[in-house]
Design goal:
It contains 21 helices and no strands. By secondary structure, it is an all-alpha fold. Helix 3 runs parallel beside helix 5 and helix 11 packs parallel to helix 13. The N and C termini lie far apart (about 95 Å).
């Protein structure tokens, strides 16, 4: 900098002595030539190499002290990798959870782990930290928290009240969401959230039984998809007025043989085709469907019958 200032002063003095005004191009070339002589391109290349190495260390290091130093790096990419590193200390996570960049806070939400064997004070700190992240105004932070498979139980209730529909929908699709939260989500104001909750394996059977009588056909269809739907509910849905409900009932893997026999008399070939393709359809039922007036149903039943008849 001093050399550049000195050079500029000399140039100014020369112009005054000679009475010559330089062109703009000459005026710019002077400082640029000095920058080139300093090897600026080499310095930039070195800086990029350092950034790459810092990100690699932040991603792979198992040393909490090193990670705590990298947590203060000016590059948000480095801080993100530190936040997402499972070896990062709890103190560094607390520090990064207050980072002004949402990407860094997302990394904290991704790696936050609930340990039931930890001390009571540690569990309380993690609980407070997770609750804070669950209320983050950035949707990416909450999404990362929902996708976290080591989420602590109390955070589910906070996320179920999130104003963002996407968060509640992802929560209803999370395999670890508890039954009490799913029951709450079945009454959600948004249709996709309700449907996702009704299809969840953790939803109580009592809720499925109640929702099977809902006036919304999409709700009844969701009940037909749930693996835990009781057999008596499936028998009721076999006589539903909605075609898709009857078809999904015929496709349900737990539908009993007597219900399949009832569905085999359905006037719509879409339903009888699902019966012909069901794994529980026995020989007699397939023999009846093998003489169906509908070609697809007839061929499906005959294909299923061939190995049975050979035996």
């Amino acid at each position: 900098t001093l050399a550049g200032a000195s050079g500029a002063a000399e140039e100014e003095q020369r112009r005054k002595t000679e009475g010559v005004e330089p062109t703009v191009e000459k005026w710019l070339r002077g400082p640029l030539s000095k920058l080139e002589s300093w090897g600026v391109s080499k310095l930039l290349h070195t800086e990029r190499s350092v950034d790459r190495e810092q990100k690699r260390r932040a991603n792979t290091s198992t040393n909490p002290r090193e990670l705590s130093l990298l947590a203060e790096d000016e590059d948000r990419g480095v801080r993100f990798f530190v936040a997402a590193n499972r070896h990062t200390s709890l103190g560094s996570r607390i520090y990064l959870a207050a980072d002004p960049d949402a990407t860094v806070r997302t990394g904290v939400a991704m790696a936050l782990a609930w340990d039931p064997l930890a001390t009571q004070s540690t569990r309380q700190i993690i609980t407070d930290l997770a609750t804070k992240l669950a209320g983050d105004p950035n949707v990416l932070v909450c999404l990362a928290l929902v996708e976290n498979r080591q989420l602590l139980p109390t955070v589910f209730d906070t996320l179920a009240r999130d104003p963002e529909e996407m968060i509640r929908w992802k929560l209803a699709s999370n395999l670890d969401t508890p039954s009490r939260v799913l029951t709450q989500l079945t009454s959600d104001t948004k249709h996709p959230v309700r449907i996702a909750a009704l299809q969840h394996r953790n939803l109580p059977v009592s809720v499925l039984t109640t929702m099977a009588a809902d006036s919304d056909a999409d709700v009844r269809r969701a009940v037909c998809v749930n693996i835990n739907t009781p057999l008596e509910v499936l028998a009721e849905l076999a006589g539903d007025t909605d075609l898709e409900v009857r078809r999904l009932t015929a496709k349900h893997q737990n539908t009993p043989l007597e219900t399949l026999a009832e569905l085999a008399r359905d006037p719509d070939p879409v339903v009888t085709l699902a019966v012909a393709q069901h794994a529980s359809a026995d020989r007699q039922l397939l023999l009846d469907l093998a003489y169906s007036d509908h070609v697809d149903v007839r061929l499906a039943a005959q294909d299923r019958l061939r190995p049975l008849l050979r035996r």
